[in-house]
Amino acid sequence: RKEVEQDPGPFNVPEGATVAFNCTYSNSASQSFFWYRQDCRKEPKLLMSVYSSGNEDGRFTAQLNRASQYISLLIRDSKLSDSATYLCVGDTGGFKTIFGAGTRLFVKA
Amino acid sequence: EAGVVQSPRYKIIEKKQPVAFWCNPISGHNTLYWYLQNLGQGPELLIRYENEEAVDDSQLPKDRFSAERLKGVDSTLKIQPAELGDSAVYLCASSKGQGLYEQYFGPGTRLTVT
């Protein structure tokens, strides 16, 4: 089992839709989690950190479920510009960060 | 604030040739990472530096890959000799510290080995 797993998608949604991605992690000692966004042929860019209490940034909400060992990303009112690959990242409990393979999102007009 | 700088942006070499990539992290960031990213995959860690010390190089293929971070700032990643399977994007990232800190990526070097 991979340490960090994501559904590769693609998710095809219309503008204005709400879409959610999950990411599971295998190491119960993991402490820190992040969501990154990566556009085609570009570097990953930090989208948001994932806190135990959950956090929200505009249309984006991240949640952590330690009991089930997954993190989620919710995007409300999807925009065309949200089309990208979303990478989840977890640490292994020893400062080593592991990236998932990414979930591809296409938002259509 | 300047971001992570990498050069070159693109490199095409023949197999068995050497190649080197350079990275300048964000000022004040003590932790520097080198990743390899293949198409359709997430970045895979090659080596992590804390200042000038390589604290995790377990995923670095040491028979052909080497890295250094002299003076704890800039870093160089080298491959010698390159193989066809080394074609990928090599990403450098930096963070203020290990683990709980966000990482910021450079634009990457796209390597093609022919």
Description:
Chain A has strands at residues 4-6, 11-14, 19-25, 33-38, 45-50, 55-57, 60-65, 70-75, 84-91, 97-99, 103-108. Chain A has 109 residues and is an all-beta fold. In chain A, strands 2, 4, 5, 9, 10 and 11 form a 6-stranded mixed β-sheet that branches. In chain A, β6 (55-57) and β7 form a beta hairpin. Chain A is globular. Chain B is an all-beta fold and 114 residues long. The model of chain B has no long low-confidence stretch (mean pLDDT 94). Chain B starts with a strand and ends with a strand. In chain B, β7 and β8 form a beta hairpin. In chain B, the strands form 2 sheets. In chain B, strands 2, 4, 5, 6, 9, 10 and 11 form a 7-stranded mixed β-sheet that branches. The interface between A and B is medium-sized, with 21 and 21 residues.
Name its key features.
A: 11 strands, 53% strand, B: 114 residues, mainly beta, four-stranded antiparallel β-sheet
Mean pLDDT of chain B, to the nearest integer, reads 94
Helix-and-strand structural type of chain B: mainly beta
**Strand percentage of chain A, roughly?**
over 45%
Estimated radius of gyration of chain A: 13 Å
| Biggest pleated-sheet summary of chain B | 7 strands, mixed
Assembly state of the chains shown: heterodimer
End-to-end CA span of chain A: 37 Å
Distance between the termini of chain B: 37 Å
Helix content of chain B: under 10%
Largest interface here, residues on each chain?
A-B, 21 and 21 residues
User: What is the strand content of chain B?
Assistant: over 45%
> Topology as H/E string of chain B?
EEEEEEEEEEE
SSE pattern of chain A: EEEEEEEEEEE
Individual helix count of chain A: 0
Compose a concise summary of this entry.
The complex is a heterodimer of chains A (109) and B (114). Chain A is mainly beta.
List the helices and strands and how they pair.
The complex is a heterodimer of chains A (109) and B (114).
Chain A: E1 4-6, E2 11-14, E3 19-25, E4 33-38, E5 45-50, E6 55-57, E7 60-65, E8 70-75, E9 84-91, E10 97-99, E11 103-108
Parallel strand pairs in A: 2-11
Antiparallel strand pairs in A: 1-3, 3-8, 4-5, 4-9, 6-7, 7-8, 9-10, 9-11
Chain B: E1 5-7, E2 10-13, E3 19-24, E4 31-37, E5 44-50, E6 53-56, E7 65-68, E8 75-79, E9 88-95, E10 104-105, E11 109-113
Parallel strand pairs in B: 2-11
Antiparallel strand pairs in B: 1-3, 3-8, 4-5, 4-9, 5-6, 7-8, 9-10, 9-11
